[in-house]
Amino acid sequence: MRIIKAKDYNDMSRKAANIIAAQVIMKPDSVLGLATGSTPIGTYKHLISLYQAGDLDFSEIRTVNLDEYKGLPKGNDQSYDYFMKENLFKHINIKEENSYIPDGMAEDDEEECRRYDQLIDSLKGVDLQLLGIGLNGHIGFNEPNDVFSKGTNLIKLTESTIEANSRFFESYDDIPKYAFTMGIKSIMQARKILLCVSGKSKAEILKESIEGPITPQVPASI
Ligand code: F6R
Question: pLDDT by residue (tens digit) across 33-62?
Answer without folding.
Answer: 999 999 999 999 999 999 999 999 999 999
